[in-house]
Every structure is written in C-alpha cells, then in structure tokens.
C-alpha cells in the first residue's frame, strides 16, 4: 500500500531540493527522517516536514507501522517561476527568477525478506595433492609466450647519486658551471 504526502509551491529551487531527496530514496522512513534532521539546509527542513506528514498519514489513515515503511519515491518537481525585476545601471533592468518546487514523497510498506532455509554444512574433505612433476609439465605446454624480463640495474644507477667515471656526465644535482672549493 502506497502512502503519499506533498508540499506544493515551496519557495525554493527544485535543484536544491533534489540534492537531499536523492540521499533518502530507498531508505527506511525512520532512518531517513533522522538523516534529514541532521542536514543543515532549508530543503532538508522542508523534506523533513513532508516525510513526517507521510508517516502520520500511513499511521492514521492506513494503520501501518512507521518501522515497516520505506521511501519508494522522493521527487522534487519544478513549480511555477515568479519573474521579478531588479534595477540596474543607466535605467536598465535585470530579471530575477523566484523559483518554486513541488516536493512529493511516496512511502510503501517494506516486505519482509523470506528467510532462506539453512543447509547444514558438510564437512570438508581433504583434497589430494597432485604430484609436483605433473604440474610443471602442464606449465611448460602453455601456448602463451614467456614474459621477457630484463635484469634490474644496480642500485647506484637507479639513485643517480654518482656519475659514471668513464662518461662525461655529471652526478645528480651538479651543475657544469659550479665552482667548488677544491678548484
């Protein structure tokens, strides 16, 4: 059984309301109410009122328990936009759109999940180990090409701390025009 509640012509943009409605969709009603009360936004306050109204409708009109309710839909649709004018420089004017929203929340009764019959666990049988020679033979017959591995260079080349004695290259951090005290 679906239970609905809505707030029409709320003086807030539907874009701002949708941020909160997306968060609560599909949650249990009581949990969603607690989440919405912790969100510090005007849209959360409006949604909280609509959600509380939907829960009250379910309890009073349909004899449903609040603990068994789940949010089926939480929709924020656009309402009519009021067009206003704001004066600008040199006698010009700019339009201000004062947007409204229609907030609709639909609750449904949660269906209890049927419990699956538990099967008794069978004892695990120890697996017989295959001989190691047979496993190696199967690996050698694979059709994939073996990976080419390059030997790792020595650690002193990776760090770049010392220059090669045979080349004209400089060590890391040295500058060709740098004058040292030994010169």
What do these coordinates show?
The protein is α+β, with helices and mostly antiparallel strands. Helix content is 31%, strand content 22%. It contains 5 helices and 5 strands. A 3-stranded antiparallel beta sheet has the order 1-5-2. The chain has a two-stranded antiparallel sheet with strand order 3-4. A hairpin with a 5-residue loop joins β3 and β4. α2 runs antiparallel to α3. The longest helix has 21 residues. The radius of gyration is 36 Å and the shape is flat. It starts with a strand and ends in a 24-residue tail after the last helix. The model has no long low-confidence stretch (mean pLDDT 82).
Helix content: 25-40%
Which stretches are poorly predicted, pLDDT < 50 over at least 5 residues? none
Report the strand count. 5
**Which shape, going by the Cα principal axes?**
flat
- Main sheet makeup: 3 strands, antiparallel
Give the strand order of the largest sheet, numbering strands 1, 2, ... along the chain. Answer: 1-5-2
Portion in strands: 15-25%
Order of helices and strands: EHHHEEEEHH
- Mean pLDDT over the full residue set: 82
Query: What is the structural class?
Result: alpha+beta
What is the straight-line distance between the termini? 93 Å
Number of helices: 5
Radius of gyration computed on alpha carbons: 36 Å
